[in-house]
Amino acid sequence: DVMWAKDIWRTIDLRHRQNMPLRYPLEGTMSDGERYSLFGLLMEGIKTEEVTPYEFNVITSWKDPFSKVSNLEEVYRQSGGDSVYDNDGNFQRVAQGMTNVLQFHVQEQWYFDKQHSTMKVRIVALAPIYYERYDEFNQPLPSPRLQIPFVVHFPQCRRLFATHSVYNPNNDAQSISFDDLFMQRRFSSNIIAESNVFGNRMLTDYKLGQDVLLEAERIKGELFVIEHDLWEY
Length: 233
Description:
This protein is α+β, with helices and mostly antiparallel strands. 24% of the residues lie in helices and 30% in strands. Strand 5 and strand 6 (118-134) form a beta hairpin. The protein starts with a strand and ends with a helix.
């Protein structure tokens, strides 16, 4: 039924006011384990083995994000924390967590369903982002280095997301689930890449400064125009 499709990559910045409910609590849980941050909920899903983490390969990048399965110990190692082992050499926990996750990368597919004559979108992958500011010798880097500790398959996370609520800052009597938030697209994001003839290159590869935001708006406008033109005669 898919007549047209295009892959889009976005960044959800947790410092944006609309995305604040996804950022807190920074550590642990609230309301006796009922409230998690988005990163905290993903980590809880990985610990209980309900969610499978995948290792992000810098070489293949987003062309094949689910090629190699990761594990909890590797996720902690990627975060830069110190792993703690018991007397038998088995991994127990990490000495410090990642509280500096301020962004998420989202891979989504926009497609036109000719059976229902509507433009639809489905989220394929989700990945937390943090920035390293010091190298392995504890020296400041010239510029922060982007790191992706793991990637998750979004459809696999939907049951976990559907059973946990996101704090609604406007109405305490009506909470929504993480799944509702993503399906209803109640988050703020910026487009950072699109599938194209050049091989899914990032906008920052060929634009600088404010032009990156203008290019993102152009791509968003194109998605609207494609659906709009299908109904123009």
